[in-house]
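Collaboration report, partner site 2.

Our partner group contributed sequences for two proteins of shared interest, and the home lab folded both. The records are reproduced in the order in which they were received, starting with the first partner submission.
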Amino acid sequence: MRGRSELGVSVLLLVVGVLVLGDAFTMETVAGQRGPVGPRTVPVLVGVALLVVAVFLAVDVLRGGRGEGEPRGEEPAGEEPAGEPADWRTVALLAGIFLAAAVLIDPLGFPITGALLFWGSAYALGSRNLSRDPLIAAVLSMATFAAFNTLLGVPLPGGPLMGVL
């Protein structure tokens, strides 16, 4: 089994797929509440996809397939060389931005919090264009808000902009 350690990943995917499907099928919904596509659709699709990937991975590993590491010194463009320390500053910035968004979504609403989340994530990941980034973040946030509220019928908190939107 030493050469088949990838089976552990397959088992993990299988367990997560079963958990996702279990949650999806025990979800309390009203039949026909939002038409043919209800709140169970995406979790069921994700759960089935996880199960399919788990089976394909297990079959591949059992047939002798192995994940190959990259040769030393041949990292793809934009990737850190193997053995380099992790960039904990970026990880901490992203974690802080996500936590701040979780705290601010109720008082500020999704449009403002989403824009801060998108802009902060771009900044943490290295973008420093202070004229373009906030504009793109605001457009993404408003488009996401409109898509969820209008197209999907999933109400997101509007915050102080609720009367304007």
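Second partner submission, folded after the first:
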Amino acid sequence: MSAVGRVFPESRIVHPIEEESFRRLRTRLDTSHFPPLTRAVVERVIHSAADLDYASDLVTDEVALEKAHRALHDGAPVVVDVEMVAAGITRRDTVCRLKDAVSGPGLTRSAHAIRLAYEQVGPGALWVIGCAPTALEELLTLDAAPALVIGLPVGFVGAAESKAALRDSGLPAVSNVSEKGGSAVAAAALNALLYHPVSRPSHPVSRPMPDAVSHPAPEAESRAGSPSKSKEN
């Protein structure tokens, strides 16, 4: 396992303001019925936007999240559509090729950046799209075989449609039904998987583990709706 891929969520020091924010969130919304990773994603997305409606707007699948969580902590690449998403992911290096991309006939700069990123990372990556619907649309044309697509672009043109296409594709995904979304919530969904504890092996390991520090977020976060798989509206 690479040094970049190895993450110890227990070592994350949680600020008291964040701890209090999650406490208040849980007094206003009961998320206890969600499975662990679904609950983690739902709560952290809501926390990032102060928007309780994400509990019924997000669409997730616990099994897909479990597989993505393993891939992420085994060092799978993380690709983002814009630097604002990258800035929100604080514990993992990311790939963003927007600066290298150019627009052309029938091709936006955001879409070209997705092509360039796929040429760089190949299959098996986690893709985090929080800005451009055309980036998500382009990803769906590629044989990317992603570990997960966090598709939460925002906007009145194409955002809801691109997210519906993501769900129709059958790819492992986190999405939402409405037009809202954005860089902050997309990064939050990825962070939920990064911060969620990794199961420890029962046998000794070669590298030392850091001392555990309590974490305010639940064992997992994900969407609202149904316990194991979110419903679409």
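Feedback sent to the partner group on the second submission included the following. The CA atoms of residues 64 and 172 lie 5 Å apart. Residues 1-10, 201-233 have pLDDT under 50 and may be disordered.
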